Amino acid sequence: MKEVKCECGHVNPHGTVLCESCGLTLIEEKAQGKLHDMRYEGSARRSQTYNKTIVDKIWNFFSSVKVGVWLIVITLIASALGTIFPQEMYIPTIMTAAEYYEDQYGWLGKLYYDLGFHNLYSSWWYLVLIASIGVSLVICSIDRVVPLYRALKKQRVTRHESFLKRQRLFTTSASENIDASFEKAKENLAMKRYKIREEDGNILAEKGRFSRWGPYVNHCGLIIFLLGGILRFVPGMYIDDMLWIREGETKVIPETNGEYYLENKEFTLEVYDKEKDNEAFSDAIENAGMVPKNFQSDVILYKKADDSLPGEEAKLEQIKEYNIRVNEPLKFDGYALYQTEYRLGELSTMTFTMINKKSKEEFGELTIELNDPQTKYDLGDGYSVEVMSYFPDFEFNESGEPTTKSRIPNNPAFVFKMFSPEKPEGEISFVAIQQNLEPFGDNEYQLRFSGIETNDVTGLTVRKDLTLWLFALGGFIFMIGVAQGSYWNHRRIWLRRNNDEIWVAAHTNKNWHGLKREISTILEGTGIDEPLDQLQEKENQDSEIKNRNHE
Amino acid sequence: MKKQRLFIRTMILLVLGAAVVYTLYANFTKDDVKKVAVGKKAPNFVLTDMNGEQHRLSDYEGKGVLLNFWATWCKPCEREMPYMDKQYQENKEEDVQILAVNIGESDVVVNEFIKKHDLTFPILNDKKQEVQTVYGIGNLPITFLIAPDGNVVNVHEGEIINEQVVIDMIKEIKP
């Protein structure tokens, strides 16, 4: 692979289409059109020139924009497919995922599951797709930015006639006093803030070159964004856990190495009140029924002050009191506790009165802590109650025995033994909500249900994210790149003396209309003709020919 | 020039490849990243059993420990309990301890369960749910096998389906 020496003396890398320095066409076949393709300044994109080793082949594959676009399209389609049915993590755990999808969505659901779409966003092929986009982004950028930088850096003021002729904006005009015209043009160019370079009496005026780096800055931002995504997999960088605490309870906060504890003093759910709140909304509130206004947990954060072990009574030091509301998390030591869930009215205590069934005489009350009942309740005067069995979440199992579904007192039931002076050996009764069964049906005494207390439970998300700043930085750099590439244009105007003629050519990477308008003010009063838009002319000619054919 | 280019390309591809491989690896092992991993030291704790006796895990160093987490409403837990109890009786004189940690149900419920199944081995109660948080307990039952040096040698998730499994477990942790 030899480097190519242009007739102007500049040495170009192999594969260069237009000489970096003077713009002469070096590879005729690649520059056949009437106009030059100026996207990469006719520079040698390296990937297109070497294709020897396996490394080069991999490089070339990822360097192709076409490949990059296809990767993005495939990823988009895949991402869309993942939203047709819910992902596995969002389906209820009442049956296995395989059964659930078939049961809910029929054969389509089964296919969905069999193809692995139920876990699409963490499947290996989806990650490979995303990773390939990242790789393509890096390689495409490197492969283009380096030659582009070279070409813009090496460009000479005096460009070859063939180069100028094949610019989209080009014209020649005769002039009696070229010097005067050039002076006037220079003055105008300076007014428009062009950077002017001169060589042999020719002019290259250029501005906004940095706009050309916009896309690459933008890609840097995206890559930083992706790095943030990778960093989330590093242990300790990203934590997302859940903490349920009842009112009055103090619990260790998960993922804090047992360092921090949280007490839930109170959970409040406020709703809009049509009497008290803004009158304008009273109709809306009436129609919608209950409209939540505030979800709030009043908590106290503690830090462990000794080196007690889990399970041991720890000495706690109060750090702070805080009211956690939606979007107002409690933040400490890199962690944040967000209000995300709640359970209202979980049963906390039940109160019974022991009575004589016939006389209805009362012999005392017992209040049972549903999360931790005592075994025996003494009512005095020889009356007492023993808890023989307790089912916090009562149901009958397949064999008809009473069991509990969980430890949460959703539907408490008890087997009590009631002792009294008349019945010292005790009477057994089964008590559940609105049920009172006697195995023998001949009890003298009864436990009459006399009240309940409830408790709210708050659900807090425990979050720690040390990667967020990378996402912010990536996003910010991305936006800089976007602004750089879209609010500035890279404009160049070439003025060249050719005997008695002045040759004018101009190029911009976008907004040709703006460039044309700018040129017309610059050339005003210089006696130089405005360059013609060769692309538009060609289009006009083509349509004229077409029209003529129609006639 | 050409060599340099090949070198730079190779380096860039290697760096990118490493990032991709790491991401894939991390993604597939993320579900296995337990708070208590095989080969790591089992976190120490102190819990009281239903007879009021304190058990400190570090006191069992030098013995193998079979540490089970369970609940009364968990059917598989209920089925596997007798196997553990039987093996506890068999290995009483050996340097092996079997501990079953209830996830913090009320004493009434746990005691009734012990009576119903006639369990003789230490049943601890994690009332404050601190130990299960440290061990990252999700699904029940789960059984940790802890070697005499205090390191976790194996984690058995789900039901112990027969007594032979317990026998094999004990073989694994016997000093």
UniProtKB/TrEMBL annotation, chain A:
Protein keywords: Cytochrome c-type biogenesis, Membrane, Transmembrane, Transmembrane helix
One Pfam short name: ResB
**Major site of localization recorded for this protein:** membrane
What cellular component GO annotations does this protein have?
A: membrane
Q: Which residue ranges run through the membrane? A: 67-85, 124-146, 216-234, 466-488
Q: Name one GO biological process term.
A: cytochrome complex assembly
Domain ResB-like, first and last residues per copy: 65-422, 441-519
Bilayer topology reads: Multi-pass membrane protein
List the subcellular locations. Answer: Membrane
PANTHER family of this UniProt entry?
Answer: CYTOCHROME C BIOGENESIS PROTEIN CCS1, CHLOROPLASTIC (PTHR31566)
- Protein's recorded name: Cytochrome c biogenesis protein
